[in-house]
Specification:
The chain has 209 residues and is of the alpha+beta class. The protein has two domains: 78 residues, Elongation Factor Tu (Ef-tu), domain 3; 86 residues, Beta Barrel (Elongation Factor Tu (Ef-tu), domain 3), CATH 2.40.30.20. The protein has five helices and 13 strands. Strand 3 and strand 4 form a beta hairpin.
Amino acid sequence: MFTGIIEEVGTILSIRKQNPTTQLTISCSKILNDMSIGDSISVNGTCLTVTTYNDHSFSVDVILGTENKTYLGQLKVGDRVNLERALLATGRLGGHFVQGHVDGKGKILHIQKSANEWIYTIEAPQVIMAQMIQQGSIAVDGISLTVFEKHQSSFNIHLIPETRQATTLSQKKQGDAVHLETDMLFKYVQALNTNKKTLAIDDLLKAGF
């Protein structure tokens, strides 16, 4: 479980294809402080497991199913990635509950700079749009953000300069892909409503009412 508050931006040092998995080695500094093998790390919003680490980097394996759901298979050496360690029970929940289970990919349609913010318009599949509400939470490449405007097949997020500079969104451009994960709490409510049986008169009669 994560919060969507990016701790550090790392750099892809190496990519090794080891069918059926791909090993990514990522350089970083801050999140290595208390790292252990088996730890969960959010890499651009994707929950991955630490397999090895040293004083300046760590490695994770990306399985085929994860590659198919994300754009991690298209990363190149030198690419920058958002990093976050798993949430501690004693830590602050500064963003929202993020599982690191990417729901799908979106595409940046437009980036607009205004006086003190950046507005990103992101296209998303309908199944993901159906799990959003305006002013609700959305994780974009692992970053906890707010859906400011929701359209038929896209939505807008507004970034303050600090968030943009502290994440990989500062390097994203029009046409780039982003990982999307909708709010976990919304999914549970949606599932409950979908599975809820409508109570009809016949049901009441059969039950003895």
